[in-house]
């Protein structure tokens, strides 16, 4: 046991374990603040050759000027504007800012703050106080990852999407907690938690996931989570928001019809650069279907197995089930779809937060190895092994995603077998 020495009496006095969280909090906040400021004001403001914001700003400016938004050259690898008309309508105020630099800097700041807000929501969701060490440690770690660094440096919208994801998950989980508290209160038993309408929480959850879907359709599979709890408010709102936004945008956005005739066919193609999905792996190395499809099917089967076996906890441990299933569905989308970029891994943060629960796939070292692989910001450029360095730069995330899928599926099956053997 750690001890300290009383200099007056020379007696050893046990160090209080309660001091450790305070010390960790005090140490983590300066690191977190400096990393946030550096990544936001220096790295991101400096920018890089990859610039997602300019493409979006120019497209929104074209829309406001009445020029067709999707009038682009689809035969080269320069960044293309990929948002649907509904998302374009939602983002249109950005194009109204006259100063490009002011718009870009503000956009970076908003995304940085959104990431911190999302981490705060997840910290509270897993039962920890914002004054404790969890939030500063999570912030410092997050702003050290490839996902956050590149999201801010490329000036894209993924930070805001992480916040929408956190709101969706938190409101969905809390809606069932709130329903349970209200049921207890109805029986005349006082609850320590305030009574909150679960209906309102579910509509907010649907609004959040609907906004995420209209910007990035990759979030659509997450509607599986409320569907499996028969939460029609969240599901209905999550479907209605992107549908209504696109209906409203169609007569407003110039050349909206080109989205279906020009952009959708392009989105159906698998690009062979900056693509960490299995399809990108096949395209880059020109791998035969005889090898690709068995790997793809095995990975898809692992996702399905994990999702199915996790269903056992959808009612008994809504928090664990929701966070773990959301991560498994999202990593499945990254890996199995036609386009997966490593910085999408930011949307796996909610799943990683389950490490603070009594049960988690992240209670094993293989899951952390997977997280390190897809979150580490290292450059693999090598003068001795240039090809290997180039491959690792793109596909280290793929390895991590596939490993996380395998670990999560195996863990879910292990939990199920243990519970069947020991039902108590």
Automatic annotation (TrEMBL):
Coiled-coil region(s): none
Pfam families: GT87
Keyword terms, alphabetized: Cell membrane, Membrane, Transferase, Transmembrane, Transmembrane helix
Membrane spanning stretches: 20-37, 107-127, 159-176, 196-215, 235-253, 291-311, 318-336, 365-385, 391-416
Localization in the cell: Cell membrane
Gene Ontology molecular function: transferase activity
First-listed, main subcellular location of the protein, grouped into a coarse class: membrane
Membrane topology listed for this record: Multi-pass membrane protein
UniProt record similarity statement: Belongs to the glycosyltransferase 87 family.
Protein name: Arabinofuranosyl transferase C
């Amino acid at each position: 046991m750690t001890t300290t020495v009383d200099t007056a009496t020379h007696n050893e006095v046990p160090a209080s374990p309660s001091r450790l969280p305070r010390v960790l909090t005090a140490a983590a906040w300066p690191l977190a603040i400096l990393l946030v400021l550096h990544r936001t004001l220096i790295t991101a403001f400096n920018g890089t050759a990859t610039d997602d914001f300019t493409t979006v700003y120019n497209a929104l400016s074209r829309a406001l000027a009445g020029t067709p938004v999707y009038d682009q050259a689809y035969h080269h690898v320069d960044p293309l504007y990929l948002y649907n008309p509904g998302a374009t309508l939602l983002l249109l105020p950005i194009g109204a800012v006259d100063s490009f630099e002011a718009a870009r800097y503000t956009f970076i700041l908003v995304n940085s703050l959104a990431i911190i807000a999302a981490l705060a929501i997840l910290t509270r969701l897993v039962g920890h106080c914002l004054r404790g060490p969890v939030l500063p440690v999570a912030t410092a770690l997050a702003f050290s990852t490839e996902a956050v660094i590149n999201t801010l440096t490329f000036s894209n919208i993924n930070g805001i999407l992480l916040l929408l994801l956190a709101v969706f998950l938190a409101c969905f989980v809390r809606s069932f907690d709130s329903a349970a508290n209200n049921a207890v209160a109805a029986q005349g038993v006082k609850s320590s938690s305030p009574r909150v309408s679960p209906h309102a929480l579910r509509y907010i959850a649907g609004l959040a996931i609907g906004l995420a879907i209209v910007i990035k359709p990759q979030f659509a599979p997450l509607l599986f989570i409320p569907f499996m709890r028969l939460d029609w408010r969240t599901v209905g709102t999550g479907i209605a928001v992107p549908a209504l936004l696109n209906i409203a945008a169609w007569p407003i956005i110039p050349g909206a019809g080109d989205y279906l005739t020009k952009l959708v066919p392009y989105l159906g193609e698998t690009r062979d650069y900056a693509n960490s999905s299995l399809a990108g792996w096949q395209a880059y190395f020109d791998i035969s279907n005889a090898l690709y499809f068995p790997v793809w099917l095995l990975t898809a089967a692992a996702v399905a197995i994990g999702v199915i076996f996790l269903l056992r906890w959808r009612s008994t441990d809504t928090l664990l089930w929701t966070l773990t299933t959301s991560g498994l569905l999202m990593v499945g989308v990254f890996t199995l779809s036609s386009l997966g970029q490593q910085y999408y891994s930011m949307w796996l943060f909610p799943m990683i937060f389950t490490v603070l629960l009594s049960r988690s796939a992240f209670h094993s070292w293989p899951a952390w190895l997977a997280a390190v692989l897809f979150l580490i910001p290292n450059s693999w450029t090598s003068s001795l092994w240039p090809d290997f360095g180039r491959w690792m730069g793109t596909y280290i995330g793929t390895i991590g995603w596939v490993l996380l899928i395998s670990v999560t599926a195996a863990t879910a099956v292990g939990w199920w077998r243990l519970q069947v053997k020991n039902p108590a």
